[in-house]
Amino acid sequence: MNKDGIIKDYYIEPAKVPVVNFQLLNSSNKAERHAAIELLDAAFREWGFVYISNHSISSEKVDLAFEWSRRFFAQSSETKELIAHPPSGEIDDNRGWAKTGLGHTVQMVFDADEAEEFRQKNPDYKETLELGNPFSDEVPPNRWLPDHLLPGFKNFVESWWTDCATLAHSLYGSVGEALKLRNEDYFCRIHSKDDCHMTWNFYPSMRLQALHSADAKRLNAHTDFGTLTIVFQDAVGGLEVHDGHMFRPIVPIPGAVVVNVGDMLEQQSNGQWKSALHRVVGPANLMKPGSVQDGDQDNAIDRYSLVYFGVPNPSEKIEIAPGCEEPGKWKPNMSGDWGKLSARQWIEKRLAVEY
Length: 355
What we know:
alpha+beta, Jelly Rolls, 8-stranded mixed beta sheet, 4-stranded antiparallel beta sheet, 10 helices, 12 strands
């Protein structure tokens, strides 16, 4: 890095996150399933992240989801304002379109003034669409555009939710097996209400000069709140995970979805699995000096990601899962001085300073 804070050594070796075959996780062949489960366990113990290949959502459906995401975020600001996210961090307000600058990501900061100071110095650069379970009468309703403005959007998103929830429940079973729980259905049971959350992210093109800064981030470093996070990322790149020493790229793999451990699962595993810090930065190929022509200030390409956050039933107390009594090497984020929290209370605590 030079005196102006411009990155000179732009290449960083990607994270060696394992790829686990979803079909083998669910194989009737015990040896195949055991090997896949062991690899899943190893990935979450070391990285807190894993790639899942050959999963249950077709590549055609994934491509269509990204197309719908592009179509939604391409709507005018006036149109998206019809379903604007309220400017609060209340958990029941976490629905709708959040414009760039409304939300900001902090890591384990709970003081409002400190969070605001961080926001000013470290802004996120993204738009989001925040959604809850569209089929539950027990959660706040989603905010939908009038159908004539984007025909078919609501129906597609509802079908996408179903696909993601189905995939998540399959993975919950694998999680129980990997942690050798006394009841392998434990995680399926505590997620029975599917009071989960879905975020569609749009990272607009931004000035290349800004992306050359050593501190440039599209999304600040953070850990996720819940149990399992399922991330569909496009081919642009920019997702990075901290390996304990530095951030390393989670390179997009065609056909594979990224799955990572959140704070609640780290707590439930008694620190055996890692809720890892991760962030989104500029695409690596644009960080190379001389990779673009001088004067071309706005060619940091748009990036999209589709995220499903697994969250236990709201009243579920987040405690050590039966079978995880032996502590691991990670200190869970939830092991503060605030006592035993429910799933809802932990999300309320972390979400409160992000809007």
